[in-house]
Input
Amino acid sequence: MTDQLRVHDAALARLQALHPKLIDLSLERMLRLCAALDHPQDRLPPVIHVAGTNGKGSTVAYLRAMAEAAGLRVHVFTSPHLVRFAERIRLAGTLITDDQLARVLERVEAANAGLPITFFEITTAAALVAFAETPADLCIIEVGLGGVLDATNVVTPAVSVIAPVDIDHREFLGDTLDLIAAEKAGIIKPGAPVVSARQQEAAEAVIEAAVSRAGVALTLMGRDFDAWGERDRLLVQLQDRLLDLPGPALPGEHQKANAGLAVAALLALGDPRIDEAAMGRGLAATVWPARFQRLTAGPLAQAAKAAGTDLWLDGGHNPHAGRAVARALGELAARDGRPVALIAGLLANKDATGFFAPFAGLASKVFTVSFEGHAAASAAQTAAAAELAGLRACACDSLQAALDKALALEPVPHVLICGSLYLAGEVLAMSPETWPT
Output
């Protein structure tokens, strides 16, 4: 680990110890801390608040890229980070600096006065203070977990966005789709229009009910607008017009829906500076690491290149994400008829068999690994889950060992590292030139 990565380890570790639970969903502690900080959540530029199970981060990336292409200064809060904590907080277009982060964390820690609070709550408060004190035109905030009691839900949005809802985080959000959708729909507030991705029937009903209670307009993909790709273009059909835009920079069919959701959200925002031309420039320039990202730097990518193949990275970790990534990987394999292989590691609390199921019949083999901390499943546990899904699996001691085995297959396959953003962070940390900026 480099000195740059160590800069705030001590402070962040101290903050993590302020509350015994890593996740304890509640707004009481957050509201108390915000009051002690003079309510930074009420001193923000217009906020787009983004919830959902899958595609939140990509949608945020498209929103930022399109707004910045229009010349707007944009604050962004996302989680988790891949390599450096600073990735979570973008101030007016630039990642927060080490000095800025140190100063704001010190102020927020002092205001908290040692009272119990979760790490996510205190770092969210730090982001809100930094946003409130830095001039900008727009603020894009991604929900951490759920919605109703998520620390970010102290903001008053100009637009609420709900990406696709699916089963995940059952231990916190519930076992059924309608319960999880109710948590996500908790960001819906009076006065803020809602833009939603295409949803499963149970989730759609919950969102529509929440919109009705709040008395706001709902723009729903599949009913009020739609988005699809044709050749290298993204078509977004609205009730009154058709936008013909450059195709999104992020690969995969699912990214066309994420991009279309972001376009509809900006139209609901109604900022005249973000015109169709700016949307097009932004879509074509969007960058979002570890979302079906082709790796071209670092030791693993160089090994794949030397073997005559390509290496990809994706942090999706639930069945819905598995389906989206499998479609993208299938499109890749169909271009040249070459097989594909997975290198996978997941958290122990994830539905690993459900994640792997869409790859059955597609991936020639899965090489499983574990990773540092974060309650990761063992390589053997992940391999067993892959085999339950109908895949041939081999547990490996390291990423390098897994890649060596994948590259030894005949013919040499396309290789995808997948299953967790934490694993993706380990991959990117191997090569500083790949770090998010």
